[in-house]
Request: fold
Amino acid sequence: MKVEIISIGTELLVSDILDTNAAHISRSLREVNVALTGKVTVGDDPEMIADAFKVALRRADLVIATGGLGSGKDDFTLEAVTAVTNRRSTPEPPGIQGGIILGDSIVGSTGIMVEEQNGVLVCLPGNRREMSYLLETEVLPYLQEQLSSDVRTGWSLLRCVGVMESSLKQELADLNATPEQRITFDSFAGQTNIRLWAKANHEAALNEKLTQLKTAVSQRLGDHVFGEEADRLETVVLGKLRQNNLRLSLAECYTHGVLQQAIALLPAATEHIQLLPAQTWQAVATQLKLDNLTGDNLSQWCRSAANALRSQTNTDLSLMVYNNVTQGGVQILITLASPHGVSVTQRSFGGHPENIDQWALTLGLTHLRRWLLVHN
Reply:
């Protein structure tokens, strides 16, 4: 089977940002027996996107496109798909007649798959986190089903936080030293997906190898592993809150509401999580009746905000996430107030603040999960 990758977005074409999506997809395709025909980048132009789709479908059996799936003025992917497939657009998901929706809109972004006689067109969101999730849980399993071989191959996913990829590679090096199995890693904004790959002569032997490998990795990494396969960090954390019958209040400053967006639509989230809509320190201070924030009292201000938030909302826990952008870089402060006191995580980043909001999401949820594990 031949696969081609198309990256959509003028910002990629003019190199304003790096195309990490295409790199991740091409690495992941090595886990299945497919040939990559090429990687193409095209700007936000419906005719150019449609032309790229037509050319790719002549060369490949399956085309994976990322970007342009939103409803903004520069999002033309759906329009291009309808032009190439001669299918009509629809107001309901997935937005095109006969298309297959990928993912669940309740817990994250979705993609689209259109099966044509001359090939399959897969469109994924441009958001790195959502793209990789759909690739791992929808696209790669679909590819695996299409392939047949006398030798059975397969993989399993473990998801972890709190440890660097370089440390993971060193810790698991001896498990990665056989041609019958291998371990690969994909890290983004503090989360690492560990793909466990194996091959065997029949299905039962393959499942046994994967189970043994998963057990060995899980035992070594302990609670750094937060889930597997389709698990998301936010759903795992919500499950812990529900399991312990705890209620959490959450406030964010200058993170574009990234945690609230990830949590708000989760089933039963409102039963255990109360969201403070304020997005600036001034709005938080006004709502919680706090003193003004100065350059010297940020850490103490966040502590006061977390304590006041917990007290005024009458919740078991409160989480304050603050993204502090300075000339020297970015600092993320995570402050959790509980009956046992206040705990803090701080992380500094240099350079351009790209993907900082995603780091805030990971650090905030990881700190909360760690507290829930300790106080289970």
